[in-house]
Amino acid sequence: MGLDHFPDRSNWFVPNASMRDAYAPNHAESFIQDLEVIGELPSDLNGMYVRNGPNPAHAPHGRYHWFDGDGMLHAVRFQGGKATYRNKFVETDGLQEERAAGQSVWPGLKERMPEGKLPDDAMKNVSNTDVTFHNGKLYSMWYRGGAVYTVDPFTLNTLGKLEHDPRLVGLQISAHSRVDESTGEFMFFAYGNRAPYMHYGVIGADGAVKTFIPVPLPGPRLPHDCAVTPNYTILHDFPLINNPEALKQGRYSLEFHQDWPTRYAVIPRHGTTDQIRWFEFEPRYMLHVANAWEEVNARGETEIVMIGTPYVMPRDYDGSLDVKRLLFTVGTQGTDYELYQWRMNLVTGETKEGVVDDVLNSEFPMINTAWQGRKNRFSYNVLMGRPRTLEQPRFSGLVKYDFDTGGAVAYHPGEGFWFSEAPFAPRDGATEEDDGYVVGFVWNGLAERSEVWVTDARDVSKGPVARVIMPVRVPHGFHSCWVREAQLQAAAVA
Ligand SMILES: [Fe+2]
After folding, report:
1. What pLDDT is recorded for position 13?
2. How far apart, in whole angstroms, are the C-alpha atoms of residue 468 and residue 470?
3. 363 alpha carbon – ligand 1 mean position (Å)
4. Of 82, 85, 87, which Cα lies nearest the Cα of 46?
5. Distance 11 CA to ligand 1 centre (A)
6. Number of structural domains, the chain?
7. N or C end of the chain: smaller count of CB under 10 Å?
8. pLDDT, tens digit, 9 for 90 and up, residues 21-57
9. How many angstroms is it from 348 CA to the middle of ligand 1?
10. Domain of residue 409, residue span
11. Mean of the pLDDT values across residues 87-97?
């Protein structure tokens, strides 16, 4: 497996680890019904699991980085105890240009950009990072920021770009922009290398842009995620940035400023720029938020609580921050994370922060999305794998966190099984937060095939209750979502 999947070997550079085995691209677009199952798929599991990920359609132009691959959506629909698989490329402008040229024309993350160009202008929006469901469509998003591609949830055909409002045209909308399922609003943030460096906006359930404001930053930053509560959106400004001189030369070189704070912007959901409040914390860097909520403390003051999985801050022998090691970890997709909490008092401006769990090393937190923005108890993360290999973050198991007790239950099936981010799927008619399943791809390295594992969210330690055998290999990828059956039914009628 691996090299045989390349369409034309003559033009390929020596493939790196991000192109072999379970990482190798799969160019076939499939629609396969009634998939084989080990065990029994629960009849009360109805809806669709969708995952985005990199899948280079052409030989890379120079050195390949895992993040460079063209976005491909993989959807597994569960209905009445049966499962159906469909996958398609996200037909981005860049991919279509390369299809027309018959080869890749864009440089990747590891390459120097053309003279005089900022990297963001010279890179292809591959739309390979994140996927969510809004207004009856899938939204495919890119972590570096670019146009959001809209996709038909039933055919996975790319419909176009989310550019129906002139303010959205050319905007670098980030992955991890979030949907509030209770209001149907889509909260997005955009960032880039030009002042004011960040924007924030809200698209309503009717599709109209309700709010759009600049969020001025001191310079270009590298936020990755955001958080939403019913009344506020929280945006991130970490002291990890691209070296400005390198940026001018068209390349990326990370630097971490340990004398700068972590700053979080708390913005009323439909607020204005002058209503942004900044809260400062210890310097740190984080990719993913688990959840945030508003909580009234004993003095009757409202606090914003945010939980996420930042990088562990490595210490030198004398207790000082080991910046070099932190940059090495971040720069090589190293995996050393902890579960962490920040609190922002909206009345006094006071802040608190601290570790929730630094025993397990886990990331890609998923929750029951009906609890997004509300105080919740459970998060389902993937465990980080051993052995650690450069440029191959692999996930070796699942962990269920209980924020109320601080406890965790983890499941690791043994060597050779590698997980993917696994969203929570509520059981039909469920009313309690953890009444449902955790659903995600697993690469079975022993049998050399992809599977989807369905795990009872109330007993993660038991392992999967059903394993769907994928007839085709699903390359390792990034983010995912669960689309409820009711959302699909409503989209079908619309
Ligand atoms: Fe992410």
Report:
1. 42
2. 6
3. 10
4. 82
5. 31
6. 1
7. C
8. 888 899 999 999 999 999 999 999 999 999 999 999 9
9. 32
10. 3-493
11. 97
